[in-house]
Every structure is written in C-alpha cells, then in structure tokens.
C-alpha cells in the first residue's frame, strides 16, 4: 500500500498537469472534448491523491519507520489518535493533506457545475489544476512524505508534545479546509477575468465557497485560540504570533468580501473591489502557508527551515503577476453600474466596514512581514510585538464593532432623518445605558467601557431586527411568537444568519474587553504553604500547596503540583499543573519538557495555574492567573460559526405572498407595512 501511495502521488501530478493543459486549451478553442477530458482528469487526480493519502496513513498506523516522515513524527508508544493526526502534523504530510482537500474541493466544484457557468468552467478547472500542480510538484520534489531512510530505526522520535492535544487534532484540518476553499473563488475570478464575464453570475458560486472558507477559518481560529490557551501555558489566547496572524488575514479579507458582495448584488457597485478581495484572500492564504512552512519567521506554530519556502515564494509571485495583469487589462469590464448616492446609506456603511477590515488586515500584514523587511533592508531582524498590534487594531476593532450595528439599520441609497431617529433610538439607548451602568459600578478602563457601550448598541440593533420581524409575522399570519421567529429565520437565512454572526461578534468583543482586567501572580510555595490573592471582582482567594507528585503515564514522565483552592473561605476544590517529559518506547527523552496547565473554569472567570519549576526541596514556582470572561471567547466563536451555518444552509423555496411568504421589513419601512416579497437581503 505504501508503494501504491508513492506511485499514486506521481501519477496525480501527471493527471493534474494534463487537466490544466487540456482545460485551458478546451476553453480557448471551444472544444467540448478537451473540456470533458480536463474534468475527467480532475476526478482522476482526486482519486490518485486519495490513494497517496491512504498509503501515508498506512505507513503511519503500521509504524513503518523506514519512512523519514513516520520516524520523525511518530513513535511506537504514541496514542493512535495522534498517530493519525501526524498525517498533517509535519511538513510533508501537511502538503499532501492540502493537496487532498484541494483535489476534493476541485472535484466537487467540477461536478456541481455541469450545467451552469459553462463558459467559465474550463478556466476554473484549469486554474484549480495549476494550483494542484504546484502543491503536488512541491510535495514530490521538496517535501516528499514517502522519502526513505538509509536504515530503519527501532523507534521514531515521536510527536511534539504541544501537538498531543485534542485541539490540535481538529484545529489544523479546519484551517486547511478554510485556506484551501479560497482557491475556488479565486479560480472563478480568474475564469471571469479571462472570459470578461464579470457580471453578478459568477458571484453566485463564489459566495457559497467563500462562506465555506469563512466558516472553517472561523472554527479553526477559535480552536487555535483555545489550544494556545490550554497548552502553551502563558495565560492568553492570542499573542499576535506570525502564524496566528497568517490565519487571520484571509479571514479579514474574506469577511470584507462577504459584505461587499451584497452591494454588487443589490446595486451593481464595487465590482473591481470584489475581484480584488477574492484574489487577495487567496494570495493571503498562500502567504500564510509560506510563512508557516518557510521558516523565515520564528513562531511556536511554524515548521522548521525547509526547502519549500522558495517554491511558495515563487508561486506567490507568479500568481500575483498573472492576476495583476488580468485585473489591469479588464478594468473597463468592471465599471460600476451605479454610484454612491449618499454617505448616509447602507452602501456607504458597508464600504466603511470594508475599509476598516482591510485596514486591520494591512496593519496585521505589515507587522507580520516587518521582520523580513527589516532583515532585507538593514541586515537585522526586528520583531514587532503585541503593543504595536494592540495600539493600531484596538481602535480599529472598536470602529468595526460600531459599524456592525450601524450598517443593518440604515436604508439603501439614502437614509432619511426620520429613518435614522426611528431605527437608532432603542439601540443607542441600550448602548449608553450599558456604559453608564458599568461606569457607575466602578469600571474606569477607557477601551473596555467603549467596547461594552458599543456591544450594548449592537446587541440592541440585533434584538430590534428580530423583534420587529417576529412581531410582523405574528400580526399578519397569526403565528405564535416562537413559530414566527423560526419562520423568519428559515425564510431569510442570509439576513438573520448574519445577525447571529453579529451576535457572536458582540460576545467576542465583550470577552476581549474582559481581558483588560486580568491579573497575574508569580509565587514560590513550600509544601503546605498558603498564598492569598484578590481576583478582578474583589473576591479573596487562598491557595494551599498540597505537595509535588511524580509518576509515569503513557509516553511521558510527569511532575505535578496540586493546590487546594478556596474563595472567600468556601472550598473550590483542587487544581493541578504538570511538567511533562515525553519519551520514546525505550524511555529516551524526545523533546524539551512541556507544561500542562490547571484551569478552574467558570463563565465568570478562569483560575489558571502554571507549574514553572520544582527545586530539590520540593519548593515549587507557580504562576496564578485570573482570566475574566475567557470562556466567552470560545462561545463567541461558536455562535459566529453557527450563524455562518445558517447563512450557508440552502434557502427555503420562496413563494408568493398568497401562499404565506413574507419578506422581512427593510430598515426604514413603516412598522406593520407589508413589504414586497424578495425585497430583503
């Protein structure tokens, strides 16, 4: 099976190259036989990549240490779940995994567009095949997972302890699914540019794939934050690490595109902007992969220096040049069909939203690439830290939060004064009341106060839209409120699924603001010694050292410390943190010791314990953090992903008003008025 897998990898490369050649030729020459041959070659490419992946998985689960990849990333005593996840845990395996997802997406794309977008599809298929050729060629020549050692070791080195975590079993696949999905909109953009068919038709397919990419990136980033929090032991979830930033960049531009696409669909505007955003999202995905795999920037998440860096940089330059040429030569074909009529309109609000998202993306990109730029210019690598990112992006993030509430309330084309007063009265009141109450309770952090004030405002806009729509259905059809709410969402998934996403944003920003009040204590404790601390809410905690324990478990030697906790004299249980030394099946240490944190979780805050070190007399050095509202970060990500699923779910068949369908009220419509069916987003 391993030999079959290795052979299949080479054959898949040949199939992808054939697919690219005949697809572009078939589209240019308008030959149906070549187009069909290219589509069949895409299916064949997927089949052979599946065989190659099965070969690598076989090598992993059978512990074939004659393969360098298996010996470098697994060991005989590695739990099976992590043996399987080693497929994408290393450089070569992750490249094959990327090709597997891309070939799957490409095959699905070809299969689901047998009858529509036929003029574009040869170029879409050809573009996807070119991307596949790049990844497969890089895999077989620079990062081949089937490369054999000159001798077969008794055991492998094992997996990095930081990757032996459930979050890392599912976090990378979700990010890959999100990264790779950006290839499909990019391929459609290339097809539309080549054929000059730049109307709204190509956006239908692009929108669905962009939502898929956004959904998986949202899930992947959320899981990555959770992994960093529970595994790395520094007490936070986002450190503006280069690889973290690399995952955020395509999410930001993808989010901007999903907003601006509505303007093109509704008003025929931002056609050039949308093409640029689609292309930029794909290129940022490739750039993120380059940062992760080239070793040019140091990161706890990145792979070591490897030969794939020049391959990725070359492909990135090639893709950038080709798309820049196509966009520059098609500018007249992308002229807008309408102009912005007022700066106080929904179009303008979405435009502001896009500018802020792109502004955040630019600042993150600049800070991430600055070490590379400084090294090229001055010969020394200057790292940009969290203070820069926070100073720039916190104000921009608060502005983005405000626009999240403003956009849905303003009418299209031009908002009247009466519309603004009616729509904004309740949300503004709720926002100001939230800020006033928190100020009265003693909150004095400026950014946090503004964040909670804006969160209250946005929450008010969301509640107002749901309440108005639900009441309208209740009055007009006699449905009870729960049925009316359900039908409102089911029949208008894009609009109300988007509001669910906005609610997730409110939760996230509220949790982020809570981090302004976190506290940290570095403590040295002898056995039986007690330490007292006050949390951000003013509660007094006591920590009693219960002693150090040492034992062997699975594939590691463990040294742990246990503290007994009490809050205001009330026992809160025991909390344990460990230092783990992983070993292979012969007991030989494989990696530097890792830390397993202890967390006492609650919706209000986490008590976070890290064992820093142990002396010979059993004295321990520990770090204790109080992290307010931390769990709401994960809940916010979950709600955003849920909203994305609602938006992606196939829309219920629209029926005429006589059969019971009612579109939701547009902002600015008179309360109780019956809108035209289909008028909503």
Task: Write a short abstract of this structure.
Helices cover 60% and strands 11% of the residues. The protein is built from 19 helices and 9 strands.
Largest sheet data: 5 strands, antiparallel
Structural class: alpha+beta
Radius of gyration: 27 Å
| Helicity level | 55-70%
The ordered H/E elements are HHHHHHHHHHHHHHHHHHEEEEEEEEEH
Q: Quick one: overall form?
A: globular
Assess the beta-strand content as a share of residues. 5-15%
**Count of helical stretches:** 19
- Rounded to the nearest angstrom, the distance between the terminal CA atoms is 51 Å
Strands, total number? 9
The strand line-up of the biggest sheet is 2-3-4-5-6
Mean of all residue-level pLDDT scores:
88
Low-confidence stretches: 654-681
What's the structural blueprint in terms of helices and strands?
Layout: H1 2-29, H2 32-61, H3 68-73, H4 80-85, H5 91-112, H6 121-142, H7 166-181, H8 183-195, H9 201-231, H10 242-267, H11 271-294, H12 308-329, H13 346-378, H14 386-406, H15 417-440, H16 446-477, H17 481-491, H18 493-514, E1 519-525, E2 530-534, E3 540-553, E4 556-567, E5 570-582, E6 594-596, E7 598-600, E8 605-614, E9 620-628, H19 631-648
Antiparallel strand pairs: 1-9, 2-3, 3-4, 4-5, 5-6, 7-8, 8-9
């Amino acid at each position: 099976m391993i030999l079959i897998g290795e052979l299949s990898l080479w054959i898949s490369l040949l199939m992808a190259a054939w697919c690219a050649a005949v697809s572009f030729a078939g589209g240019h020459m308008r030959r149906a036989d070549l187009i069909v041959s290219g589509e069949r070659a895409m299916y064949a490419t997927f089949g052979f990549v599946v065989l190659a992946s099965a070969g690598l998985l076989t090598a992993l689960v059978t512990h074939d240490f004659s393969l360098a990849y298996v010996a470098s990333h697994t060991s005989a005593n590695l739990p099976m779940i992590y043996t399987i996840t080693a497929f994408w845990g290393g450089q070569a395996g992750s490249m094959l995994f990327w090709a597997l997802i891309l070939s799957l997406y490409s095959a699905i794309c070809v299969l689901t567009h047998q009858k529509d977008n036929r003029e574009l599809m040869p170029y879409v298929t050809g573009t996807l095949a070119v991307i596949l050729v790049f990844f497969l060629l890089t895999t077989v020549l620079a990062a081949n997972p089937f490369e054999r050692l000159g001798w077969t070791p008794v055991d492998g080195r094992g997996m990095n302890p930081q990757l032996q975590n459930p979050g890392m079993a599912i976090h990378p696949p979700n990010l890959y699914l999100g990264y790779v999905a950006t290839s499909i909109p990019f391929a459609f953009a290339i097809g539309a540019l080549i054929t000059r068919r730049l109307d709204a038709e190509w956006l239908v397919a692009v929108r669905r794939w962009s939502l898929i990419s956004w959904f998986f990136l949202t899930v992947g980033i959320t899981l990555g934050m959770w992994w960093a929090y529970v595994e790395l032991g520094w007490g936070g979830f986002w450190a503006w690490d280069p690889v973290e930033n690399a995952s955020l960049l395509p999410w930001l531009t993808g989010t901007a595109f999903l907003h601006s696409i509505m303007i093109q669909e509704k008003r025929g505007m931002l056609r050039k902007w949308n093409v640029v955003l689609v292309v930029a999202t794909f290129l940022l995905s490739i750039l993120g992969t380059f940062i992760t795999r080239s070793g040019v920037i140091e990161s706890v998440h990145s792979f070591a220096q490897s030969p794939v860096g020049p391959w990725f940089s070359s492909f990135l330059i090639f893709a950038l040049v080709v798309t820049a040429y196509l966009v520059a030569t098609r500018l007249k074909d992308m002229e807008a069909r309408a102009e912005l009529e007022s700066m106080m309109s929904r179009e303008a609000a979405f435009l502001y939203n896009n500018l802020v998202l792109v502004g955040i993306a630019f600042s993150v990109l600049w800070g991430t690439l600055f070490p590379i730029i400084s090294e090229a210019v001055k010969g020394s690598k200057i790292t940009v830290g969290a203070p820069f990112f926070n100073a720039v992006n916190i104000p921009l993030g608060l502005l983005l939060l405000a626009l999240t509430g403003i956009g849905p309330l303003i009418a299209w084309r031009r908002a009247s004064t009466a519309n603004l007063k009616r729509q904004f009265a309740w949300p503004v009141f709720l926002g100001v009341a939230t800020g006033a109450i928190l100020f009265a309770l003693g909150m004095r952090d400026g950014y946090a106060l503004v964040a909670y004030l804006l969160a209250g405002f946005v929450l008010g806009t969301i509640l107002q839209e749901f309440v108005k729509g639900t009441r309208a259905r209740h009055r007009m059809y006699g449905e009870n409120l729960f049925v009316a709410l359900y039908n409102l969402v089911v029949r208008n998934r894009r609009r109300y699924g988007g509001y669910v996403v906005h609610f997730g944003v409110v939760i996230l920003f509220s949790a982020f603001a809570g981090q302004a009040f976190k506290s940290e204590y570095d403590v040295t404790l002898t056995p039986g010694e007690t330490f007292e601390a006050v949390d951000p809410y003013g509660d007094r905690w006591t920590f009693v050292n219960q002693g150090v324990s040492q034992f062997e478990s699975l594939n590691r030697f463990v040294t742990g410390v246990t503290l007994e906790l009490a809050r205001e004299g009330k026992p809160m249980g025991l909390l344990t943190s460990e230092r783990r030394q992983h070993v292979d099946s012969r007991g030989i240490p494989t990696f530097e010791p890792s830390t397993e944190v202890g967390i006492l979780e609650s919706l209000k805050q986490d008590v976070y314990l890290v064992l820093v070190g142990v002396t010979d007399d059993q004295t321990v050095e520990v770090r204790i953090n109080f992290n307010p509202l931390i769990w709401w970060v994960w809940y916010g990500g979950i709600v955003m992903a849920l909203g994305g699923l609602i938006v992606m779910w196939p829309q219920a068949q629209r029926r005429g008003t006589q059969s019971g369908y009612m579109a939701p009220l547009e902002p600015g419509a008179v309360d109780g008025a019956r809108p035209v069916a289909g008028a909503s987003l």
